[in-house]
Specification:
It is built from 10 helices and 10 strands. By secondary structure, it is α/β, with parallel strands linked by helices.
């Protein structure tokens, strides 16, 4: 008998973070090749990474997908206040938990907010907290217009909610049409429903705490300064993936990141856009697997 899931449905685990906040996660696979933590973006749940998790597990990795605090099935932040530092400390808690359970230091793959958390963790809190860091469409410099558009979208209908899932799908498609994903407004809402919960009043609301958008905010200049400082301190292997059609991370932002952290490996995913509520992150899997197949990450028999 082993503690690892052999196949089929993932194991659901609750991991207590530094302040008592329970982070709910799904675990897939076995640690034959290594361990991976997949962290979703703001407004997503861990299910956004499910397809990717199965793909990584088939390749021989043990994979942990966790809901961010204030998202999905994880606890909301004590006091209703959210910070990038708290998300970073959560990322390290998950890494330490995975390391204790498997004896393997995990690779961390974070999309958007999940990536910001890991960048802060590795650049400002503990430089060796992960075996490697893959950042999916997140960089120190971001488009102020793109950031404001996303923030306004997330605040829209956050409290009032929607009459049904189809109304939420239409709202999402109106604000951010996605040619590379299912048509949410014409019935393709199965993935989106995992990002919504129905309240006692019968209305559907996003599956995250509205306070996370209201309190997790830095002015773009301060955000860039903080993340630039973190990026300059990175010493672990880093893979930076930019969505080719990203409205948040521009080509200028990508060039800036590569200038301040010249050792990072860069991949641009053609046709991809910034991941938002209800989207799947599977489009990034092949590039992530190619990076993790590099010789320096290969495990030796009996080694880490």
């Amino acid at each position: 008998m082993t503690p690892y899931q052999q196949g089929g449905e993932p194991e659901t685990i609750a991991i207590t973070s530094f302040d008592g906040c329970a982070l709910v996660a799904s675990q897939f696979g076995r640690p034959d090749k290594g361990a991976i933590i997949l962290s979703p973006g703001g407004g997503q749940t861990r299910h956004a990474w499910s397809g990717a998790a199965f793909a990584f597990a088939r390749e021989g990795y043990i994979v942990l997908c966790a809901d961010l605090r204030g998202h999905g099935d994880s606890d909301r932040a004590p006091g209703g206040t959210y910070s990038y530092t708290d998300y970073a400390r959560d990322a390290l808690v998950l890494s330490d938990w995975m390391g204790r359970r498997t004896g393997v230091k995990p690779h961390f793959i974070g999309a958007s907010l999940g990536g910001v958390a890991a960048l802060v963790a590795a650049g400002k809190i503990r430089q060796d907290g992960f075996a490697s860091l893959t950042l999916v469409d997140v960089a120190p410099k971001i488009s102020e217009h793109g950031f404001c558009s996303i923030r306004n979208f997330m605040l829209g209908a956050a409290k009032n909610g929607f009459e049904n899932v189809s109304e939420a799908a239409a709202f999402l498609s109106k604000h951010f049409p996605r040619p590379n994903t299912e048509n949410r407004s014409s019935g393709g809402t199965s993935g989106l429903q995992k990002n919504l919960r129905q309240g006692e009043d019968g209305r559907w609301r996003w599956h995250w705490d509205p306070a996370f958008v209201e309190t997790l905010h830095l002015e773009p200049a301060e955000f860039e300064r903080e993340l630039t400082d973190a990026a300059k301190s990175l010493i672990i292997p880093v893979h930076f993936m930019r969505a080719g059609n990203s409205e948040l991370v521009t080509q200028e932002a990508a060039a800036h990141f590569r200038d301040i952290a010249p050792h990072i490996h860069f991949t641009e995913i053609k046709g991809a856009q910034h991941m938002l509520t209800g989207d799947q992150n599977d489009i990034f899997v092949d590039a992530a697997l190619d990076y993790l197949a590099r010789p320096e990450f290969r495990r030796t028999p009996g080694g880490n």
